[in-house]
Amino acid sequence: MIHDIALLDTAQCNQSAVNLFLSVNAGDPSADIDFSSQTFEDKTKYSGYIQETETWNSTRVQVVEVSTLISSQPYTVTLETPLLFLSSFCTNLESSNASAVALRNYDEYYNLGAVKLSESHRQSWKQLWSEGGIEITGNLRLAQRVNASLYAILSNVRSDWPFGVSPGGIGTNAYNGHVFWDMETWVYPSLLLLQPSIARSLLEYRIQRVPRAIQKSSFYHLSGAWFPWESAFTGVECCPFNGGKNTEGLLEIHINGDISFACMQYLRCQVDPVPFLEEGGKNIIEQVANFWASRVRYNGTFYLIDNVQPPDESAGRVNNSVYTNSIAALSLTNAISVLEMLGEAPPAAWSNIANNLLIPFDTTLQGHPEYEGYNGEMINQADTILMQYPLGIKMSEAVAHNDLSYYQKKTRKNGYFTGDNAYSIAWLALNEYDSGVQQYRRSFSHIRGPFDVWWEKVRGGHSHFITGAGGFLQNFIFGFGGIRILTDTLMIDPVGLPDADGYLFRHVDYKGKTFDVSFDKTSGLTIEKSLNTMICVNTGESKYQINAGQAATFTVFPVYIE
Question: Which of 313, 340, 370, 372 is catalytic?
Answer without folding.
Answer: 313
